[in-house]
Amino acid sequence: MIEATEREPSDRDVLRASLKEPATFGILFDRHFRSVYRFLERQVGATAAEDLAAETFTVAFAQRRTFDARRRDVRPWLFGIAINLLRNHRRAEAARRDLGVRQATRERQAIDEDPVHDLAVVTGEVTRVANALARIDNEPRTLLLLVASTDFNIEQAAESLHISPAATRTRLWRARQQLRAELGASNRYTDESSSAPDIRAEASKEEQ
Amino acid sequence: MRTDELDLVRRFAQDGPELPAEVMDRARQRLTEAMATSAEVVPLITSSDTAVDRRRRRFVLPAVAAAVLVLACIAVGVTVSGGGSPRPSTGVRVHRESLAAAELERAAHLVADDSTPVPGPGEYLYTETDSATLVALNSGGNLTPPDVTPSTMVRQSASSAPNPNAPDAGATYRVWDETHAQSWVDANDNGRASFTFSTSFFSPQDKSVWQAAGSPPVDVVAGAPSTASLSASGFPDVTGLPTDPQALLRTLESGAYGAPDDPSAAFSAVGELLQDPKDTSPALRSALYQAAALIPDTEALGTIADHAGQQGQGIGLTKDGVRSELIVDPSSGQLLGTEDVALDPSDASEALIQSARVVPAGTVVSWWSVVDSGIVTRVSLLPTASIGGNAAEPRERAVRTTCNAFALDLWRSLSQPLWRPLLSVTGLLMLRTSRLSREHCGRSAEPQSV
């Protein structure tokens, strides 16, 4: 068989090839479906994430000609599609709730509807951050998870969100402030000293 | 420095459950369907260049097709080098297989919505195919014994005057055994079929060797021993085949069509059965593609041209140094052609097509192409919207052009493994032919009386 060559083709090369060879797009699916799915699953739960992640790739395939060929990285574009679908999903959910079936506070909704909180089995610091994330707004939460689940820098995140890097930097800063406030409000993240808190020990203490 | 709250989010982001395989499969299926529905129509190439040129072009593939291969290979390299990969040793196959399976699934999807014209009252479905298999012969006009190697081939080719004391097997030359088939079949399977057989030399050197050997008769078809009858051919009725892909694959692997535990035989059987659009239902054709998608080790070849110059998506399976390829119309899912390519002649000692041992790597040693099809109102008429016209510009006809309506002659030689590819290519067509009138034999000299 043919030996693998030394250079991995960039996502951009693959995407370009898929313009003439649609099947090539499957390579992007294989590379990135997992991370897109996980990014979504952490926000809307497994069921909706499956649908949204699958839709992300079919939409991306259909729109592959619109990808700006000057950009080297396909992932911000891909996550940008996922985020748009995520927003649409949330709007649809909100519309459904607005039908008056049930009135609830935002916190309550987050806990009931948003699988960020749907993590009964998680323990320790993950529970803590899940709770905190569940209490902040959707958009900052999405931004935090985008940056956390990818290794995107500000420019890449900005590309995904279709806003300027400066605006992204500001939003990320605010999102972190919000999260920190929530973590602090739960009085479980108070260590501002120079050394990192031993979260694991702290968590096991809590469990007891 | 304190722990970043982003680090906490990262831990949360990585804490989710493992992605279930079925989720990924369902998503991949959706993507494949999206690809199928957005299929771009690749214009059929009506080629006027020579068969040899076409063959060459087949190997000077568009950069894109090559890129796909390279990409697939490289993608694999990543998997292999990535220590955390759960199945590093199969990384190469996994990726190219997934592409091949996607292509096959897509074809299955397309072909299920059948657009094959069905002849109405007073109409005939016309099908015209070209096929050829490369045969290595010795000076007696017999099939080359298995001990001929490429090295002896080269030696003999280089020598214009072979040693007269050398054994017969020494003077080996290669000829194309070609079949041009036309059939007009109505809804009741009545009509006419004609087959024109011809031979031509693989290269001028082969002709020199043949001449030096005293120009023996090269009547390879007549020369094949007759040992099997039609009833013993072992080809079951296609209408009895299951349309469940798994069950169909088991049937294809059961031995009636291929060899047990030989996925390549099942893959070839898929190609052979797909060559008969008249007798296979849309559901069966769809199931055939799906069954092929289940066969391990298939690879996506990207867009390739078949022997008649028609471009389609290629799916291949390599066995014994020979890659069998299906070339599928990207817009209809119909099979455009098949090819067998000798990739590694040194590895072809067990190859079904034995001439694969005595050709340069990359040579197409067997092919089949639909060159025309459509509905006509009378036998001997050709469809007006002819897609390809005559396929190959006639090369030097070394031996004979004959009419043979009686497929039985060919079927008798089915027991010869060498002939199986050629026969299976035309076999189903001939099976139908055997039900047809045999009166037309004398008339095939003027088959295109438009």
Summarize the structure.
Chain A is mostly helical and 208 residues long. Chain A is 68% helix and 0% strand. Chain A is globular and about 55 Å long.
Provide an overview of this structure.
- The complex is a heterodimer of chains A (208) and B (450).
- Residues 1-6, 101-122 and 188-208 of chain A have low confidence and may be disordered.
- Chain A folds into two domains: 10-103, Rna Polymerase Sigma Factor, Chain: A; 121-190 and 199-208, Arc Repressor Mutant, subunit A, CATH 1.10.10.10.
- The longest helix of chain A is centred in the first third of the chain and has 38 residues, at 25-62.
- Chain A contains nine helices and no strands.
- In chain A, helix 2 (25-62) runs antiparallel to helix 6, helix 3 (75-98) packs across helix 7 (154-161) and helix 7 packs across helix 8 (165-185).
- Chain A is an all-alpha fold and 208 residues long.
- Helix content of chain A is 68%, strand content 0%.
- Chain A starts with 10 loop residues before the first helix and ends with a helix.
- By secondary structure, chain B is α+β, with helices and mostly antiparallel strands.
- Chain B has one domain (124-443).
- Chain B contains 13 helices and nine strands.
- Chain B has helices spanning 5-13, 21-37, 51-59, 63-81, 91-112, 150-158, 204-212, 220-223, 245-253, 263-274, 282-294, 407-412, 420-433, and strands at residues 124-137, 173-185, 191-201, 299-305, 311-319, 322-328, 335-342, 363-376, 402-403.
- In chain B, strands 4-5-6-7-8-1-2-3-9 form a nine-stranded antiparallel sheet, with helices on both faces.
- The longest helix of chain B has 22 residues, at 91-112.
- In chain B, 47% of the residues are buried.
- Mean pLDDT of chain B is 64; it is low at 39-95, 145-169, 221-236 and 386-450.
- Chains A and B meet through helix 1, helix 2, helix 5, helix 6 and helix 8 of A and helix 1, helix 2, helix 4, helix 5 and strand 4 of B.
